[in-house]
Design a protein that fits this description.
Length: 232
């Protein structure tokens, strides 16, 4: 494999890629650096001295603490614009360094606590880095897939065709609706507080909503009823 390497605020970012996919490897390096900056501002500073991203010889992408695998097929269609699915996937997987790695959760019983937040973080990335393409992200990730089905608080033991729709996509829509209801400022402060409170700890849905209610007096019962099978 080949390596692109850069440094950002004394943090090393490494992108390993196959020889024929240098464009993708370079784009991932750039996107990861941008994501660390964007998420560091939106959530909390990146918690490690190194982030390594490796092109996998498989289709899915997968996050680990300080390490990300991105499926090889995403590298094959780099189009040279911000509207590139490799950027979307990189933004998603890097977001897991906050939602999964920094703030832990029960990935079996409450997977939405990392997957919904990582999916919505893609939109936060686009707002920060490519604001003129934020509406494009909303369209290709959420709007054009309507109607979406399933409860956001689905567990992995309920895996079926609607699992990704429910946990990832409806989860992101829930966060978007929540932001609209409580306002940008309260939503931003909430995310920072949530990340700080549960840094290096395991969060839960109850903890998520407890921190949220510390930052808003808005009635969100209808939103919860729309997206969740259980009362919070």
């Amino acid at each position: 494999m080949y390596l692109f390497l850069t440094y950002l605020c004394n943090r090393a970012i490494q992108s390993y890629y196959f020889p024929d996919d240098a464009k993708g490897g370079e784009l991932i390096l750039q996107t990861a650096a941008q994501a660390i900056e964007a998420y560091g501002e939106a959530f909390a500073p990146y918690p490690h001295p190194v982030l390594t991203i490796v092109q996998g010889d498989f289709v899915p992408s997968m996050e680990y603490d300080g390490l990300v695998f991105v499926g090889h097929t995403f590298y094959h269609y780099v189009n040279g614009t911000p509207r590139d699915y490799l950027i979307v996937m990189t933004a998603h997987e890097v977001a897991h360094q906050w939602w999964f790695a920094l703030v832990g959760d029960d990935q079996a019983l409450e997977p939405w606590l990392d997957e919904a937040l990582a999916t919505y973080s893609e939109g936060i990335f686009y707002e920060a880095i490519y604001p003129e393409d934020a509406d494009w992200w909303q369209e290709i990730r959420l709007t054009q897939r309507e109607p979406l089905s399933g409860w956001v608080d689905t567990s992995i033991y309920d895996l079926n065709r609607s699992y990704t729709e429910a946990v990832y996509l409806r989860g992101a829509k829930f966060l978007g609706d929540l932001r609209l209801r409580i306002g940008d400022e309260a939503f931003s402060v909430f995310l920072k507080d949530y990340a700080a409170t549960y840094s290096q700890r395991r969060a839960s849905a109850d903890g998520f909503f407890r921190i949220l209610r510390m930052h808003t007096q808005a009635d969100i019962s209808d939103i919860i009823g729309t997206y969740f099978s259980r009362h919070h």
